[in-house]
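Homework-ish question, so no full write-ups if that breaks the rules, but can someone show me the predicted structure for this set?
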Amino acid sequence: MPESEEQDTLLRASQGDLEAFGVLYEKYVERIFNYVYYRTGNVHDAEDLTARVFYRALHHIQTYTDRGVPFSAWLYRIAHNLVANWHRDRSRHQEIPLSDAPTIHYKGEPPEVALMQTQERDALLGLIRHLPSERQHLLILKFVEHMSNAEIGETMGRSEGAVKSLYHRTLLALRDELEDSDLEELTRQPNASRLD
Amino acid sequence: MNTKMKQFADASMGKIASLENRLSGVLRPIKPRKEFVHGVAHHIQTGTQAAFVDRIANWHLIAMLIAGLISLAVVLAVVGRVLLSLLGKNRTA
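A: Not a homework solution, just the prediction itself:
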């Protein structure tokens, strides 16, 4: 959707046009779902919170003002607040239960290698989920949405240089966490780090 | 010394590149269920959930208002009691 068209849709949505809001919903639902999923670690809560993000957005869209930041940034802010409340309401961070994690097929790998890869994946996701929320957001935008640093900067309200720097610091922090954890040992096993 | 530094830097960069590969393997886009996406879209189109959220928001507001009034009444009662007690002491003195 071109930017001018989105502006028009936004304007109509802010005037109470539910169909226009539906168009915005269709465009952004997957992105918000992915963000919430990787922040919470389970599909059920991700669905619940994603729905709430859009209900809240619908409820407040009349007060939305275009300040030059993308509409997605507004949605991400709502999602961030809801996820923060969700974490506050829970006594501990929830890890992804194996049964709830999306299945990734490791073609041709023996079961023990596939199991190790799943363990590595869960452990790495656990480490990511313990990073500060801003860094998690950055990683999600970078790897799930494949956004450039400039686009991430627009969404997060930072300069491109600041995003680059934050990304580098995040990787260093994650590398240090990995070195301190057993995960590094796990991934040193042959074939363990090759995900297909 | 320089060679050692270079080796260290190369090893560090190698680890970072390996970490990026692992992250790209772990952080993959996930499709939400179609039933979920369509269900929310339906609620949005009909505006039912928005009305529900409205009611929840109003209910929260009313609850907070009542709680605030009760708190204010308690504070006023305590202050009044303290003042009366102080006045009573002054009179007896």
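Now go work out the reasoning yourself. Hint: Chain B touches chain A at residues 15-16, 18-33, 36-37, 40-41, 43-45, 47, 49-50, 52-54, 57 (CB under 8 Å).
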